[in-house]
Design brief:
Blueprint lengths: L2 E5 L3 H13 L3 E5 L14 E6 L8 H11 L2 E8 L4 H9 L5 E4 L4 H9 L2
Parallel strand pairs: 1-2, 1-3, 3-4, 4-5
Length: 117
Amino acid sequence: MRKVLVIQEDIVILKILERLVRLNGFDCKAIRSLDSLTIEDQQINFEFIITDILFEGIAPLQFVAQIQEIIPHKNLLIVTNMGQDKIKQEIFALQDVTGFYAVPIDLDEIEAIIQAY
């Protein structure tokens, strides 16, 4: 079964995204921070990682670079409260970022992307 990793501190957004992913036929691991990631998780090649970029103690670009380095994945979707255009442009300048969505999020758009894969 195709797997998706959701990393989101906001518990409400975490649960909404987890449900959306499961309703679309993916196995989902939903965590609130990278601290909850196991060694086994780091060996899974996730179809999608859907993550926030605002975590205490790490800059958004560093967080994305860390995700890309330590967790095998095919697609990376950013879902965040940070809507600054400068950060969005910098994130998209990185390779392998599939989408960037600022809260409030358009669930239909996110669902369309995961259904396409």
